[in-house]
Specification:
This is NXPE C-terminal domain-containing protein. InterPro entries: Ig-like_fold, Ig_E-set, NXPE4_C, NXPH/NXPE. By secondary structure, the protein is an alpha+beta fold. The chain folds into 3 domains: 134 residues, Immunoglobulin-like, CATH 2.60.40.10; 72 residues, no CATH class; 217 residues, Rossmann fold (3-Layer(aba) Sandwich), CATH 3.40.50. It is built from 12 helices and 26 strands. Strands 2, 4, 5, 8, 14, 16, 17 and 18 form an 8-stranded mixed β-sheet that branches. Strands 20-21-22-19-24-25-26 form a 7-stranded mixed β-sheet, covered by helices on one side. It has a 6-stranded antiparallel β-sheet with strand order 11-12-10-9-13-23, with no helix packed on it. Strand 11 and strand 12 form a beta hairpin. Helix 3 packs across helix 10, helix 7 crosses helix 12 and helix 9 runs parallel beside helix 10. It is globular. 40% of the residues are buried. Bound molecules: 2-acetamido-2-deoxy-beta-D-glucopyranose (NAG) (4 copies). One 2-acetamido-2-deoxy-beta-D-glucopyranose binds next to loops. The site of one 2-acetamido-2-deoxy-beta-D-glucopyranose has 5 residues, from loops.
Length: 561
Amino acid sequence: MVKPSTEKSNAQVCRLRHYALLACFLWTSFYLALWLLNGGIHIKQFQPPRPKPVPQNNSSSIMSAFDMGISDEEWERLQKAIEWPIPDQEITRLDQSTSPVHSTFSIMGLKESYKVGEKISVAITARDHRKNLKRYGGDFFKAKLFNAELKASVYGEVVDHRNGTYSVALLLPWEGQAQVFVRLEHSSEVVQILKKYRDSSFPRTHFNGFFEGSGPNKIRISEVVECNLKWGADGSWSKGDCCCEYKDIKTGTVWQCERPKKLSCDKLVRHSGGRLENPLHLFEQQLFTKKLTNVAINGDKKIINVLPNTSAIGTMEKCRSGMMTPVPAGFYLKDVWKSFVCNTRQFSPAQMANCLKNKIVYFMGDSTTRQWFEYLERTVPGIKRMDLHTHPAGGPLMAVELKNNIIVHWRVHGVPLRFSKVMPIIDLHYISNDIDEIAGGPHAVVVFTYCAHLVFHPITFYVYEVAKIRQSVVALLSRAPETTVVIKSGNTAGLKNIYQSDWHMLQLDTVMREMFRDIDGVIFLDVWQMTSCHYLREHIHPGPVIIANEVDMLLSYVCPA
Ligand SMILES: *[C@@H]1O[C@H](CO)[C@@H](O)[C@H](O)[C@H]1NC(C)=O
Ligand SMILES: *[C@@H]1O[C@H](CO)[C@@H](O)[C@H](O)[C@H]1NC(C)=O
Ligand SMILES: *[C@@H]1O[C@H](CO)[C@@H](O)[C@H](O)[C@H]1NC(C)=O
Ligand SMILES: *[C@@H]1O[C@H](CO)[C@@H](O)[C@H](O)[C@H]1NC(C)=O
């Protein structure tokens, strides 16, 4: 960098910079206006600057399986499981990306009528904004079959043929009519961007650390600084000896906060989620616009007629650990989820109390397990929340029912956690550490989720944390094999942007499922399909109908029929 030698040249540089900025602004505005005039799509001239390289080091590439605490073979297996095709080239024009307007679906060989239990096959063709067929895969489509009057729906898995075509097999599980619905959640071009920033060390999220203690004249003072995860060779967030470091002795996870000016490092007492930082440049942002995100695509709207069949579909198998989640995992009919994993049932309030008699339920993780806590609190007759003098959204929370000796706990997982509530940092416990402190036994039901708050961090960190949780679960099941251990998967969410995306969640879910695949005695309660195909608008906090079905499923495992 050339240093200006005099004030005059400094001023000139400044003026020049102003002109440059102004020119840049005008240029951008002009083309943006042109782009909008063209319906935001058909435009050849728009040639934005080539994407910048990721600002910092690629932290996943410098973490080894050893750093994550797993074997090389396992890391290879995990990478294979989360492999997702992305464009085979660098995208420089918006019109090269997949268009929800020009992509279509059709039902293959549609018949006059079907029988319950049959399947239909749907073909999706992806096209770009100039109607050209896409040549590569990686688009994130979601597909379902539904009937609004019957409050019925079922999820379909989209198979990527990696040549711009996709197919979906949809089961016809109910009698009556049905329609296909397909949406493009993200183009493969967006997935490429999501992947790039997840694997980079760009801090999309920041956190606040609240320091409190005695200042110079014994007056209690407070200071707020930024904090973040320390992960990767360079610490990923802040470099050098900048910070106070907090290493959890058992998990080895390192949290760091900027050094406060007056107080010492040991005075960190509270925590909250902080600002978000957008790494996207202008061109990348255009790929994420609302018009291109989570949009229904055109296709066969024909009504499918489904006639009854004499044999009933579904499974009578008892719910237990180690069951695989098929596709579909079940379906909704009149808002009741009928599972194909195992024989789930609906619990009346009295049956819920009976099922939970003499149980201690430990809910851990995030607000989605808090929703389960709150549902039990609302539904189990006579259950009461104790006042633990904590914030109702942040917890920890506890509810008891004295007649049947039921205790229900809820607590959030450790940092990184993006709760906006300012919480005592001492109340944020790593799931693995808490599991280590549970004796377990037939009365203990341990339920955790670990997903929604981890989408901001490299997947290598997630693997590291899940490996720690796995160690603790294995130890728990070894000392008390009769303990019920349930992993609640992540659910789909309303936001679909660079911060939070279902694509991220799906990747983390896949890692969690794979890492627990061979652990006997663990129940993986997969709510992905339940939250993806329901008629309610997707939300990180699914609506009450969905939560009721999720908890019925949980209780079906605790008290199998
Ligand atoms: C990236 O990582 C390499 C090797 O770990 C290191 O030498 C380099 O200084 C890092 N670059 C930045 C910008 O942090
Ligand atoms: C980061 O490293 C991983 C693993 O080596 C690689 O697959 C990925 O493409 C890299 N990402 C970027 C943005 O360089
Ligand atoms: C319909 O029921 C019969 C037995 O009653 C069974 O053999 C057949 O597979 C069923 N069809 C479908 C599509 O499930
Ligand atoms: C794409 O791949 C599928 C599966 O291999 C194949 O059936 C189909 O013909 C291919 N389509 C195109 C357009 O290449």
